[in-house]
Amino acid sequence: MIAGLRQDGCEVEIKPGNRSCRFQPQRLRVESQGKAKFVFRDIELRGADRNCTFAITVHEAGQASRTIYRGFRIASRPAPSPATQGARSFTCYMNSPSKLAGLEPTGQTRR
Fold first, then answer.
1. Strands 94-95 vs 2-3: parallel, antiparallel or unpaired
2. Is residue 74 a contact partner of residue 45, using CB atoms and an 8 Å limit?
3. 3-class secondary-structure state, position 97
4. Which of 65, 77, 71 has the alpha carbon at shortest distance from 92?
5. Pairing of strands 10-16, 26-30
6. What are phi and psi of 102, to 5 degrees?
7. In 3-state terms, what secondary structure has residue 5?
8. Contact 98, 63 (CB under 8 A)
9. Does 105 reside within a domain?
10. Which residue of 2, 16, 36, 100 sits 20 to 30 Å from the alpha carbon of 89, by its own alpha carbon?
């Protein structure tokens, strides 16, 4: 979910945020509503803490690209059963680069 996108939307790229997890990077065009859904399969966790960090880069026309990092702890897989099967998911909320650019100081102090 990306707030404050212009009419032409943006490109979002998601790739591993550190070396303790590995998955295929994905890139998707997000429309002005700011809603997108990414599905990751075959995530390989290398660390004992089972944390996976996602580097989310937003490319919006006329603005510098912005990267944010979000972490997600992936539980160990118990023996498969119908009750435990299901997707693990989370929602990430962020502001668009153009909205953030308007909030940056321009040489004046705000109080």
1. parallel
2. yes
3. helix
4. 71
5. antiparallel
6. -70, -20
7. coil
8. yes
9. no
10. 100
Q: Is residue 81 situated within a structural domain?
A: no
Q: What is the pLDDT of residues 15-57, one digit of tens each?
A: 999 998 999 999 999 998 989 899 888 888 888 888 889 999 9
Structure tokens given for 17: 């945020």
Structure token digits, residue 67:
């990267």
Which segments of 1-111 does DSSP mark as H helices, in order?
97-103
- Residue span of the structural domain in which 55 resides: 2-76+88-99
Prediction pTM value: 0.74
Q: Quick one: which of 18, 23, 102, 5 has its CA closest to 59? A: 5
End-to-end CA distance of the chain: 29
Report the number of distinct structural domains present in the chain. Answer: 1
Asked whether residue 83 is assigned to any structural domain, the reply reads no
Q: Please indicate, yes or no, if residue 8 is contained in any of the structural domains.
A: yes
